[in-house]
Amino acid sequence: HGGSYPGYKTQTLIQLDGKVGVIVLSNGDDSNPGDIAQHLMQLVGAAVAKADAHPKPAVAWDPSWSRFAGTYRSAFGDTAVVELNKELVTFDPVGANPERQSKLVPIGGGEFKLEAPAGGGVVGEVVRFVEPPGGGMRMYSGGSFSDRVAVP
Questions:
Q1: Residue range 94-111, pLDDT digits in tens
Q2: Angle, vertex CA 67, rays to CA 111 and CA 152, nearest 5
């Protein structure tokens, strides 16, 4: 969650399941606390994920998860979800590096955990897909959601 008031900008990111949070407070209209918070969360999130690297039982690939593939749109931009070698991966479809993908690792109960390379997305964030009544698909992550706007 971000906020601003003339002369001040803020950004807060929290990974509830990882018990990690970052708060950036700035006193400048030309600052970008969102980018700073994202970078800090990547560094801290990766360290926490590594420290909490207890072996967990793997969840086998379920072919029904292919239905989650598509392009999702939120107020913050688009995210592509693609099935690749019996895994779901995400990437920015208009970004400079589409080969820089994050995995959606199944954790059970229709939820996935975001696993990103160093310097990638937020590590450990829980992602879930919901099929609302009346059709469509919605992807929830980090307290926000994206609606599917295209199916592969």
A1: 887 777 788 899 988 779
A2: 125
Closest CA to 1 of 75, 57, 66: 75
Which single residue is written with the structure tokens 């199944």? 106
| DSSP collapsed to 3 states, the chain | CEEEECCEEEEEEEECCCCEEEEEEECCCCCCHHHHHHHHHHHHHHHHHHHCCCCCCCCCCCHHHHHHCEEEEECCEEEEEEECCCCEEEECCCCCCCCCCEEEEEEECCEEEEECCCCCCCCCCEEEEECCCCCCCEEEECCEEEEEEECC
> Distance between CA 65 and CA 106 in Å, rounded?
10
Cα 34 to Cα 24: distance, rounded to the nearest angstrom: 8
**Residue 105 in tokens:** 């690792």
Residue 12 has pLDDT above 90, yes or no: no
pTM of the model: 0.62
